[in-house]
Write a structure and sequence with these properties.
The chain has 409 residues and is α/β, with parallel strands linked by helices. The protein folds into 3 domains: 215 residues, Rossmann fold, CATH 3.40.50; 89 residues, Orthogonal Bundle (Tyrosyl-Transfer RNA Synthetase), CATH 1.10.240; 78 residues, Structural Genomics Hypothetical 15.5 Kd Protein In mrcA-pckA Intergenic Region, Chain A (Roll), CATH 3.10.290.10. Helices cover 44% and strands 14% of the residues. Strands 1-6-5-2-3-4 form a 6-stranded mixed beta sheet, with helices on both faces. Strands 9-15-14-11-12 form a 5-stranded mixed beta sheet.
């Protein structure tokens, strides 16, 4: 099997590495334990977290052992990295609730049985720390001058950085030291904005334990259109099916920009790179089929093969005019009384959540981009009534990519 580090390089996962030559040697021998931290700031992760998740999953598939670290302790502080202002302070109860959600979610991508993989929470070793002892034993190894040069700190100095956030780097470095000492963890991985924190950890291990540890960061994934990965007009694309349905998740991937398809096949699927390169060469009309492969494989990893196949079938039915036959189509409801009286279609678009405002709805209708049950809407004030129902529902479409099934209650 290919060396894990080579796999990451080939698939485009690597931004920076502490010791490139040694890293390849490291993964050529005994199984390696590596970790990535996940902040429990919400009860679900979103697509923006898939790069670290996939990196840990590949690690395990190569015979190494991942640690998925839930930051129950550091979430009480708040990571300033990549933030223009201080994160909202969460309560202990909120963090515990979110941490439980992340545990269940991460377990879908890798085996976390305390043998082949571990799921840990840093609240377990951070909470018992004595502040004075921590400053004496750990804080003395940190230079404030050096901390101020970290990108995550420099960006915040203009808008203000609280003292509590300034401590974050010490705590993350201590996490690495703890995992190195107690779990023989040799590698920390994370997003590009974590480079300063990761290097602080490798330095702390060298100073306190005289040991050698490694760091690796992933690139910030930006689409070819310049948008941050995982952001849509409707907000974040969540990994929780209750927040983003398998159908909506599938649609996110199938709507990938043509220029990003090959890169995303390498990053977000387990397809062999030979197959990725073969698919990446396709152009024109064939790209629709390639996007179906990307959407199917990515959705199967997060929601299971059955849900992915169902989302594909639903998408095809809608795309090729077969109607809303699948159960995974995003759905809204409307009171029967409203349809008895008749409701203007532009108001229905807003109520169904397809448009953010009445102005947007009227503009899209004027542009000819809205259909009801596959018939084009001609006027913004066209009234929709019970006579428009098909199988007790309405199918609203905006273009070819946005759909909503409106059921009557």
């Amino acid at each position: 099997m290919q060396n894990y580090y080579q796999t990451l390089k080939e698939r485009g996962f690597i931004e920076q590495v502490t010791d490139p030559e040694e890293m390849e040697t490291l993964f050529g021998g005994e199984p390696v334990i590596a970790y990535i931290g996940f902040d429990p700031t919400a009860e679900s992760l979103h697509v923006g977290s898939l790069i670290p998740i996939m990196a840990l999953a590949h690690l395990q598939r190569h015979g190494h052992r991942p640690i998925a670290l839930v930051g129950g302790g550091t979430a009480l502080i708040g990571d300033p990295s990549g933030k223009k202002e201080m994160r909202p302070v969460l309560t202990h109860e909120q963090i515990r609730h979110n941490a439980e959600g992340l545990k269940k979610q991460l377990s879908r991508y890798m085996t976390l049985d305390n043998s082949r993989g571990f799921l840990l929470n840093n609240i377990d070793w951070l909470a018992p720390l004595n502040y004075i002892e921590f400053l004496r034993d750990i804080g003395r190894h940190f230079s404030v001058n050096r901390m101020l040069t970290a990108e995550s700190v420099r960006q915040r100095l203009e808008t203000g950085l609280s003292f509590i956030e300034f401590n974050y780097q010490l705590l993350q470095a201590y996490d690495f030291l703890h995992l190195y000492s107690h779990e023989h963890c040799l590698l920390q991985m994370g997003g590009a904005d974590q480079w300063g924190n990761i290097v602080a950890g490798t330095d702390l291990i060298r100073r306190v334990r005289g040991g050698k540890a490694y760091g690796l960061t992933f690139p910030l994934i930006v689409t070819s259109s310049g948008e941050k990965m995982g952001k849509t007009a409707k907000g974040a694309v969540w990994l929780d099916p209750e927040r983003t349905s398998p159908y909506e998740y599938y649609q996110f991937w199938i709507n990938t920009d043509d220029r990003d398809v090959g890169r995303f096949l390498a990053l977000f699927t387990y397809l062999p790179m030979e197959r990725v390169r073969e698919l990446s060469e396709k152009e024109g009309a064939e790209l629709r089929e390639v996007k179906e492969v990307l959407a199917l494989e990515a959705t199967a990893i997060t929601h299971g093969r059955e849900a992915a196949e169902q989302a594909k079938e639903t998408s095809r039915n809608l795309f090729y005019g077969g109607g809303a036959q699948g159960e995974t189509v995003p759905t809204a409801t409307i009171d029967r009384e409203k349809l008895i009286q008749g409701v203007e279609v532009y108001l229905l678009l807003v109520e169904a959540g397809l448009c953010q405002s009445r102005g947007e709805a009227r503009r899209l209708i004027a542009q000819g981009g809205v259909t009801l049950n596959d018939s084009r809407i001609q006027s913004f004030d066209q009234k929709i009534s019970l006579s428009d129902l098909k199988e007790n529902a309405l199918l609203l479409k905006i273009g070819k990519k946005r759909y909503k099934k409106v059921s009557v209650r």
